């Protein structure tokens, strides 16, 4: 990295074990969303940089895939310690380019570390299976091998956690990994690369290649890449899935979301309002598991909206480095303008904007990309506020009469990432989690991101491909199975070869 006289840092790639500016001439500005100032200039890869990254990864895969489990896990354990001891530095980089508050940035690093810890146990997960004497004198065993070179393409909203959903499992299972981070907050990925190297990972096993659509499309079509993990918006997830599978690759592409939380009349309304507020406005609503729709069932609506509005107005919005900040800015000015347009169109269509974050600003930081917590009540399903993924601090409230109606609403929505129910009834909770067509469900838990030993993934337009990310499905995604049927005949045995199909 180098810094110009105006304080703008040039952000390089990390290829073959070292930072490099690469040969690409295109660049993209990186901003601090809290001040609106450009802080970085990102080098975007060209075709030569892409070839270099893939060639390094292919070469490194030959030895890394053959490295003992003991040596691979030693690197993972060391990496775990290094990430934990650099948590402040990593969090500062996240806050500077993403804008989320420091405590939240540390939270995402901790959730990423869980996956590193899961991957430390990879020998247990790769043990395979053995059937002794499957037929007379014949044993059968199965085991898994790495795919080879895999790439991870990640979104802006979790610049450390989402890469850590992928790389530790890919690397522990013996693959080499090329990370194409979001171009909006690319710096934390470079620190991760340095920590991997410090942990003893051989050069070329983890690389960072910066770029935009051009680089992504180069990765999706490159013949030497065997697998693609993608996390981002639904239109791009669909494009990634369709393009990469057409080029013979294994793909898991996680897309966008519109997560509903239903609140039943038997719920503890204060508990529900506290959690809805945190889940809607934490990280400025820029989480794929944020609650963006509150579904008020029956008579709770007025009370619930009142309680959520009171809490929304009390959220402390400030630069993420402020010790008491609860919510920072949104990622870009364009995102802010889009959110304002959607809230305005809901108001024009008859919804009630109960708390209005449009025009919000932080004194002294007027050029930051601010948007205050917003609550829009009486949203109907044909309004943009319902049909669009807003991806900002906007909570839409939809009113329904029954639990059945709430479940139908959720199932009619094209997304199926996460959902939650607030209730004190086990029977209602059970009917809910069994009835919704959604991948991750919370019962009195608003953001049910699975722990690392369960896998993460949505249904419908929230996931293209059939393997969820991390956990055992992640191990399965990054490996191919082999089954060996073996016999060791005694030299004296008469031949038992047969022209019939083998049977037992
Ligand atoms: P995005 O889709 O704009 O970008 C994601 C990645 O795709 C980036 O690396 C970007 O460089 C690349 N990209 C962007 N446009 C492209 C194009 N036209 N062709 C090829 N590649 C392209 O997403 P974002 O704005 O960075 O992140 C927010 C989105 O990610 C939201 O929709 C959110 O719901 C989703 N998300 C989903 C999950 C999940 O687990 N399902 C998790 C986090 C974020």
Q: What secondary-structure arrangement, pairings included, does this model have?
A:
Layout (H helix, E strand, L loop, with lengths): L1 E2 L5 E3 L1 E3 L2 E3 L6 E6 L4 E7 L3 H18 L4 H17 L1 H12 L3 H19 L1 H4 L3 E7 L2 E9 L2 E5 L7 H12 L3 E5 L6 H12 L7 E3 L4 H9 L5 E5 L2 H13 L3 E5 L4 E5 L5 H13 L9 E7 L3 H14 L18 H16 L3 E4 L18 E4 L6 H4 L6 E7 L2 H10 L2 E2 L1 E5 L3 H10 L4 E4 L15 E2 L2 E2 L6 H7 L1 E9 L17
Helix pairs in contact: 2-4, 2-7, 3-4, 3-7, 4-6, 8-9, 10-11
The structure holds nicotinamide-adenine-dinucleotide.
Order of adjacent strands in the largest pleated sheet? 16-17-18-15-14-20-21
List how many beta strands DSSP finds.
24
Radius of gyration over alpha carbons?
25 Å
Q: How much helical structure, as a percent, in the residues? A: 25-40%
In CATH terms, what is the fold-level topology of the largest domain? Answer: Aldehyde Dehydrogenase, Chain A, domain 1
Mean pLDDT: 97
CATH 4th-level superfamily of the largest domain: Aldehyde Dehydrogenase, Chain A, domain 1
Give the uncertain stretches in residue-range form: none
Hetero groups in this structure are: nicotinamide-adenine-dinucleotide
Question: Which structural class do the helices and strands define?
Answer: alpha/beta
Q: For this structure, what is the CATH class of the largest domain?
A: Alpha Beta
Distance between the termini: 64 Å
- Taken from the alpha-carbon principal axes, the silhouette is globular
Number of helices: 16
Largest sheet: 7 strands, mixed
So, CATH architecture of the largest domain?
Answer: 3-Layer(aba) Sandwich
Query: Total domains, how many?
Result: 2
Beta content comes to: 15-25%
């Amino acid at each position: 990295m180098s810094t110009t006289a105006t304080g703008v840092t040039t952000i390089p790639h990390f290829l073959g074990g070292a930072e490099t500016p690469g040969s690409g001439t295109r660049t993209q500005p990186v901003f601090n969303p809290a001040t609106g100032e450009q802080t970085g200039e990102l080098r975007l890869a060209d075709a030569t940089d892409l070839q270099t990254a893939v060639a390094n990864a292919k070469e490194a895969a030959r030895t890394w895939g053959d490295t003992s489990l003991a040596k691979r896990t030693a690197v993972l354990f060391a990496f775990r310690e290094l990430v934990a001891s650099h948590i402040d530095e990593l969090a500062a980089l996240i806050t500077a380019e993403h804008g989320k508050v420091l405590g939240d940035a540390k939270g995402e690093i901790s959730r990423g570390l869980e996956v590193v810890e899961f991957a430390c146990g990879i020998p247990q997960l790769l043990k395979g299976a053995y059937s002794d004497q499957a037929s007379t004198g014949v044993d059968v065993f199965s085991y898994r091998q790495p795919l080879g070179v895999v790439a991870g393409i990640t979104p802006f909203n979790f610049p450390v956690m989402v890469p850590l959903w992928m790389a530790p499992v890919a690397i522990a299972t013996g693959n080499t990994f090329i990370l194409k981070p979001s171009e909006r907050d690319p710096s934390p990925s470079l620190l991760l690369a340095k920590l991997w190297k410090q942990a003893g990972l051989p050069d070329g096993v983890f690389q960072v290649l910066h770029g935009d659509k051009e680089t992504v499309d180069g990765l999706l079509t490159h013949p030497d890449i065997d697998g693609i993990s993608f996390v981002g918006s639904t239109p791009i997830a669909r494009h990634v899935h369709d393009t990469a599978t057409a080029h013979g690759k294994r793909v898991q592409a996680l897309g966008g979301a519109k997560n509903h939380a239903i609140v039943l009349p038997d719920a503890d309304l204060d508990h529900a309002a506290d959690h809805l507020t945190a889940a809607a406005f934490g990280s400025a609503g820029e989480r794929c598991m944020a609650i963006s729709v509150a579904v008020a069932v029956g008579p709770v609506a007025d009370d619930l909206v009142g309680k959520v509005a009171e809490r929304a107005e009390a959220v402390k919005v400030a630069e993420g480095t402020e010790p008491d900040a609860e919510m920072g800015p949104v990622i870009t000015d364009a995102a802010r303008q889009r959110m304002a347009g959607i809230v305005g169109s809901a108001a024009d269509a008859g919804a009630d904007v109960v708390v209005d974050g449009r025009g919000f600003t932080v004194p002294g930081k007027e050029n930051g990309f601010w948007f205050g917590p917003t609550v829009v009540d009486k949203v109907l399903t044909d309004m943009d506020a319902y049909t669009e993924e807003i991806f900002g601090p906007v909570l839409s409230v939809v009113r329904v009469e029954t639990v059945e109606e709430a479940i139908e609403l959720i199932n009619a929505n094209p997304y199926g990432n996460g959902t939650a129910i607030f209730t004190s009834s086990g029977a209602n909770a059970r009917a809910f989690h069994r009835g919704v067509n959604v991948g991750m469900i919370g019962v009195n838990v608003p953001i049910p991101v699975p722990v690392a030993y369960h896998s993460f993934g949505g249904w419908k337009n929230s996931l293209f491909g059939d393997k969820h990310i991390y956990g055992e499905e992640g191990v399965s995604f990054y490996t191919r199975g082999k089954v060996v049927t073996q016999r060791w005949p005694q030299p004296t045995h008469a031949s038992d070869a047969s022209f019939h199909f083998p049977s037992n």
